[in-house]
Structures are given as structure tokens and as C-alpha cells.
UniProtKB/TrEMBL annotation:
The keyword Signal applies. Residues 1-23 form the signal peptide. InterPro entries: Calycin. This is Putative secreted protein. It comes from Ixodes ricinus (Common tick). Keywords: Signal. The lineage of its organism: Eukaryota, Metazoa, Ecdysozoa, Arthropoda, Chelicerata.
Length: 191
């Protein structure tokens, strides 16, 4: 009886230590679920990121107005951007393949694969969902380059999301590229 009580006490103490250690920084330890985040026929507006060249559409200038559009339940998607107010928008169709840790039902990362052409099915980048509140924003991490990207779920021209705050406080040395301009998504807003 005493031995059983001792095991429970040790287990309880260990459980309390785990709770204390995870309470400090929720974004780095908690797995966030991309399958709960990504929905069919939904726009995700790229607010800002930390890279110099676009990882999804290489060879083009960084987007001034960027967004993701999820097209189907199979997670076919488009990455779109307008390089300037006068230029035509550029897009690339991709397929998002969700992945999780072995033995986990949580899908916290995704491969962004070419949708068509000679490189169909080839992975362009792998992204991890670093943080989301599932209501207003998501902070994604590019595994291969160590860069980050903030998605806003609604048009939001101010830096007031939790994701923006996490990006600027946790990565103070990284340069940020902010994509929003007051003319961004004029057709989207009208239609």
C-alpha cells in the first residue's frame, strides 16, 4: 500500500513539473492542428514574413499583397500575390499535404507540393504551424530555411494580432517584410 502511494506521489509531482515547464511559452511546446485550421474555400492573407525571396513562387519579387486560397477539401490551394498596384497578380497552384508526429492525430505540419507540371507532387517547402488562436491568425515556420510567415484570417491592415506580437517578440533580430498596402485586395473587397 505504501509503495503504491509513493508511485502516485512521484507521478503527481512529475505531472505538476510538466505543467509548470509548459506554461512559460505556449507557442514552442503545444502542437497546433492544421486540419482544424485549413478550411475549404477560405482565404488566408499573408500579413508579413521574414524571408527575402518567396519560397513558394521562386524567381518572382516578394509579394506586395499575398494570400493563400484553399480550393478543395483535398487541400488544393493557390498562393497569389500582386507585385505592385499596376502589375497583374501572380499565382501558383499547390497541394497541401498535412503531417503529424508518429502516433499523433494532430497534423501540425504540411508539405507544400507542386500541383502540376513536370515536378507534380514534388515538395517545394515544409511548413510547421508554430502558433494559432484558430480565430484571427496563424504563425507558420518554414522548416528548411528557418523563416516565418503570419497569416491573418480576415483583412487586417494593423499589426494587432497575437501572431504578429509573437513574431516580433520571439524573433527580434529577423527583418520583417509586411505585405499590406491600402490598395491590396481591392477586387476582393468589392466582390
Amino acid at each position: 500500500m505504501l509503495a503504491t502511494g509513493w508511485k502516485i506521489t512521484q507521478l503527481f509531482v512529475g505531472f505538476c513539473m510538466v505543467i509548470i515547464s509548459k506554461a512559460g511559452n505556449p507557442s514552442s511546446n503545444r502542437p497546433y492542428d492544421l486540419s482544424k485550421l485549413l478550411q475549404r474555400a477560405t482565404n488566408y492573407f499573408v500579413y508579413e514574413d521574414t524571408f527575402i525571396k518567396d519560397k513558394i513562387i521562386p524567381g518572382n519579387p516578394l509579394p506586395t499583397c499575398g494570400r493563400w486560397f484553399i480550393v478543395t477539401d483535398a487541400l488544393d490551394a493557390k498562393r497569389l500575390y500582386e507585385p505592385s498596384q499596376a502589375a497583374y497578380s501572380v499565382e501558383k497552384k499547390v497541394q497541401l499535404v498535412l503531417e503529424g508526429e508518429p502516433g499523433s492525430s494532430v497534423k501540425s505540419s504540411m508539405k507544400v507540393n507542386n500541383y502540376d507540371g513536370p515536378q507534380k507532387g514534388q515538395t517545394i517547402v515544409t511548413m510547421d504551424l508554430n502558433y494559432t488562436d484558430y480565430q484571427s491568425c496563424a504563425l507558420l515556420y518554414y522548416r528548411d530555411s528557418g523563416d516565418y510567415e503570419v497569416w491573418n484570417f480576415q483583412l487586417n491592415f494593423k499589426n494587432n494580432t497575437e501572431c504578429h506580437q509573437k513574431l516580433t517578440t520571439e524573433l527580434p533580430g529577423k527583418p520583417l517584410t509586411v505585405y499590406y498596402r491600402d490598395w491590396c485586395y481591392a477586387g476582393f473587397l468589392e466582390g
